[in-house]
Specification:
Strand content: 25-35%
Order of helices and strands: EEEEEEEEEE
Oligomer: single chain
Strand order of the largest sheet: 5-6-8-9
Number of strands: 10
Number of helices: 0
Helix content: under 10%
Largest sheet: 4 strands, antiparallel
Length: 103
């Protein structure tokens, strides 16, 4: 979910002064996921980030319900350089069979 920021993924001991060396800086950044997809029959909440472990709320439209989901899309591992968003499905609400009508 993270990758080395900068040119290389190597720490280097560099000459800082005549008597001492200093380690180069090294940071890791979260891999990007791009824009989250909007599942059919839903709307997305505010998107604040598009990187590994980011989340965005999903609300199913009226007449639809989340099919076993948490109400969130989450950016997870895809490849070493690009994450992928979880899936989310809104299904039509079912009323079941209609009741028998008396004659």
């Amino acid at each position: 979910g993270y990758t080395a920021a900068g040119v290389t993924g190597t720490l280097m001991c560099n000459a800082d002064t005549a008597m001492m060396g200093a380690w180069s800086s090294f940071t890791c950044t979260a891999i990007p996921c791009g824009d989250p997809p909007t599942p059919a029959n839903s709307v997305l909440g505010t998107i604040t980030a598009r990187t590994y472990q980011s989340t965005v709320a999903v609300t199913c439209n009226t007449g639809y319900t989340a099919a076993g989901a948490t109400g969130m899309l989450t950016c997870g591992l895809g490849t070493t350089t690009l994450g992928n968003w979880s899936t989310f499905i809104c299904t039509a609400v079912s009323c079941g069979n209609p009741p028998a009508v008396a004659r």
